[in-house]
Here is the input.
Amino acid sequence: MSVKVHQLNKRYGSFPAVRDVTFEVPSGGIFGFVGPNGAGKTTTLRILAGLLAPTSGEAWVGGESVIQRPRAVRQKVGYMPDFFGVYGDLTVVEYLDFYAHSHGVARSHRQRVIDDLIELVDLVDKRQAFVNTLSRGMKQRLGLARCLVHDPEVLLLDEPASGLDPRARVEMREILRELQKMGKTILVSSHILPELADLCTHLGIVNHGQMLVHGPVADVLAQAEVGQSVVIRVLERAEAVADHLRQRPGVSRVEVGSEGVVADLTGDDGDVAALLRSLVEAGLPVVEFRKRSRGLEELFLEVTGEQEGA
Amino acid sequence: MLAIVLKEFKSRMRGWRTPVILTLYVGLLANAAYGQAQQMATLAAYSYGNNNPAAEGMQIFSTLAGFQLALLIFLTPALSSGALAGEREHQTFDLLLCTGLSAPAIVLGKYLATMAFVLLLLWASLPVFSLVLLFGGVAPLSIALVMLLCFATSLAISAVTVLLSAIFHRVQIVTAVAYGVVFFQTVGLFVFARFAPVFQGGASGPAPLAAFVSPITALASLLSAGNSPYVGFPVLPLPLYFARTVPRLSQLHLALWEVHILIDVLIACVALGLASYLIQPTRQLRRRRP
Here is the structure.
């Protein structure tokens, strides 16, 4: 595992910012860390970057403990905070050279690294531009290049797309895909789920400092599918269909809307087939019957909503 | 560490502030020297041929030395206050901590960059100081020693300001507190040393610790070493006791200004060590889990 977090806790006075967070990210994976603002994402990432001491628990990055060997961890990590400043009076090349030098990249090797990174983040035309003249999107890309100057094993990106326009977001996603191909392990946090849905291999949903769901995206989605949802469109008598469904065992919720009749039920695909059969046998005019897959967004709303209600 | 020093040089030299500071600094020194020379010339007109160019040179030199020390005391907190607090304000501090640099390397890098700038100011002032050599009465070594004393004073002030920069997160607060500390160290301790009861009876008692810490007394001691009973401070005549050597200090026979330099170095080491400790992000944890 490239990143391993075990029962991590962080308290600020009496306020628990992170509570018993546990998860793992394999090498080369992209872990989407999702949660509303103030959920504990930034605190967790800062602990993993060796910038914050946890109250209890343990975390390892690239096999190094963030508590015992924070400096070794920092060499294995490229961290991009949600808000970060730049040295505006340096040019793009000088900016990257400073961080490469600080990370101990050999002088002979530095220029090639900088050229490669500038190309990766598509700032070739801005090589000699002063950093304070770059747009927000360019600064974000430069920040990403900065994270990579020492060729880290793990990237910790805190809301990398925040404040970017749609085009810049797409560009950022493409760069992250490219980095994954290069074998980097990436932890990327966001409070906007669609940003991460099609990018991540693993997902963790966090709220009020607690990890609610985590694991490979497919597994997390499967958890979302434990309770199934079907949409039934009928030629007529929608209310009769709804009444029929309400009398069926295992059906938890029935709603009649513009889409048709939507029913949530427990059970597997066999139960779904049995439900369709019962509708046909009852003589109801079904013209469409389909399972509605519940997306990550619904799962997110569901698990965070459950916690709010608890 | 070198990365930080080089980056600071680039940043400092690119702005408009550096040329303005250098110009003002040298201009003010030259103006002080010119003013003193004018005053000397006016006095010479009434001296009926009893001019003493060496004494005049010494007066101008004393003025320049005092002025240089005052300017550095004034400038050093401003030059150092942004060292760490500025990084925090500009949200670049975390990025710096994430590099392979250790906390002492970051602190030292910032500190050395400031001290290099102080050296530049001292270097720029040399042509003005060299004018006093034309009068005679002042040896080049005296100029070098004044430069050394000024540099040592800046060493301590800058280190204390860097420490404050590690404690407080806003540059304005750091600057304000630093000026308070510097005022206490220079003027406060000088006044205390000057009017301490032990001296009221005469010049026989040992100098209090305050006298060793204040750069004003140190400069007075340096300028008057081996000279007349009164320090050649034209604007602030000081009595002889600041000129005395300190014969009982561990049998080292060090002059007050020499002890002051040692204290400055000690203050700098302690302040920088503390600053390095304070900026370590995971220090609480290591304290709890050895």
